[in-house]
Write a structure and sequence with these properties.
Elements lengths: L1 H36 L11 H5 L12 H13 L9 H12 L8 H12 L4 H5 L5 H12 L3 E9 L6 E9 L20 E2 L5 E2 L3 E4 L5 E3 L4 E9 L3 E8 L4 E8 L14 E2 L4 E4 L18 E8 L12 E3 L2 H7 L6 E3 L6 E3 L3 E3 L7
Antiparallel strand pairs: 1-2, 1-16, 3-4, 5-12, 6-11, 7-8, 7-10, 8-9, 9-12, 12-13, 14-15
The protein binds zinc ion.
Amino acid sequence: MFISFKLNRTVVILCTVFILLSFYIVGFVRNTSIKTTGTSKQSDTSTTQSDAKKNYIKWVDFKVTDTAMRKAMKVDIESKDSSNHIDWIDLLSILAVKYGGDFSRFKEADLTALVKRIKDGEKIEDITRDMKYYSYYREAYGAVLGAYIGEYEIEEASKDSEKTATVKKYGLKAFSPIAKDYGYSHSDDFGNSRSYGFKRKHLGHDMMGNVGTPVIAIESGTVEALGWNQYGGWRIGIRSFDRKRYYYYAHLRKGHPYPDDLSIGHTVKAGDVIGYLGMTGYSSKEDTNNIEIPHLHMGIQLIFDESQKEGNNEIWIDCYEIAKFLRQNTSAVVKDELTGEFRRKYEFMEASTENME
Ligand SMILES: [Zn+2]
């Protein structure tokens, strides 16, 4: 009697746990299947195990403006040493819910009001509790901007001597892809149609400048691709250490597209010289200039699941606003007169690159 009661009780508890778990999984998949599909809504919300496994973000429209990023970053940096450090990505993700992701609607007053609520003691968890899309934006924006702000060390020139000193900082540690003091022009050209080979959309951002302009690594990472590509010409692809971002730099200079010591598997630091602006590409013949206007094509691809790396499910984001945002942090370069190669002027170190040679 006692044993059967105990057994029954165990069965009841197990069943309850199972049912609750099922509801949780159903709810989770439902929630995220809407969030993760963006424009194409999934109608199938059945919950097989393989569905649950494929539960990652499928699409991102990155429409955060340079202005919004700068203002949110300022709050983050200024609150760094306070007892209530406010994360800029939390701020942008909450505002994204309000704007449906469209930051042309951004008003500074909205940011100010949000910051006041947090400073007055409201927790991010409480503010976002009923925001259906918050977790989607937080994950998507975290994937784009997650490594842009943080602690780093950089050399600086001292005021009254030729010597440099290493300074610890907290702030923007991603760099503009065009070296300091080199001019360029650009406009929002993402999604424009291209007609070489077959009709394709432009999945990146073009920065027009002079041939030979040093091209800079936006973020630290590992060289994943390097060499000739029919469309991109001489190109280099760098994967972030967290593997969520793939940076593509294309149309590099004919003859000498990148420093000799770069190769696949090599790690680079944010701010390093990784190549030279050129006009190669649109040809199956290697080392051919077939681009009319010299420019750097930069592309940022997001990867939430390795199956998105290549094929029909690639996520390339509009990086015009990011390029504008990064303009405030340019890498100074010097030319080695012996080799003709350019290199960064000031050493840089962040936690992820500490053990690098
Ligand atoms: Zn381009």
